């Protein structure tokens, strides 16, 4: 199986869902589809297309830059924190490797974090509680007060 979905009673009350994906290209559209399917019943007021785009960028980066000896996975989790939506993408890469690039107009890659920086209200990277790296973005006012 190329993925698992975990949307039933979360350990953390604010967690709305999670998925674990193998580091293959097919996981990127799968992450978008499953996120939309499982966040929709919570009726967020934010632009889900923007969230899917940011998830695509982070899952792609996790697949491209995650490193581990042996088999490894990418984990995506989404949380409601008051009126905000937070999405975390975990991979086994080193936290120090995350940086926002400023590619030239001729470069085909390197704009993922710039895109997230432009769309999300905030984002961060650091050590993952699962080991490796987590990159998160937050969309404020994803739900009405």
From TrEMBL:
One of its GO terms (molecular function) is protein serine/threonine kinase activity. It comes from the Bacteria. The keyword Transferase applies. Residues 25-136 form the Histidine kinase/HSP90-like ATPase domain. Pfam families: HATPase_c_2 (PF13581). Keywords: Kinase, Serine/threonine-protein kinase, Transferase. InterPro entries: Anti-sigma-factor_SerPK (IPR050267), HATPase_C_sf (IPR036890), HATPase_dom (IPR003594). Gene3D superfamilies: Histidine kinase-like ATPase, C-terminal domain. PANTHER family: ANTI-SIGMA-F FACTOR RSBW (PTHR35526:SF3), ANTI-SIGMA-F FACTOR RSBW-RELATED (PTHR35526). This is AbaA-like regulatory protein. It comes from Streptomyces davaonensis (strain DSM 101723 / JCM 4913 / KCC S-0913 / 768). The lineage of its organism: Bacteria, Bacillati, Actinomycetota, Actinomycetes, Kitasatosporales.
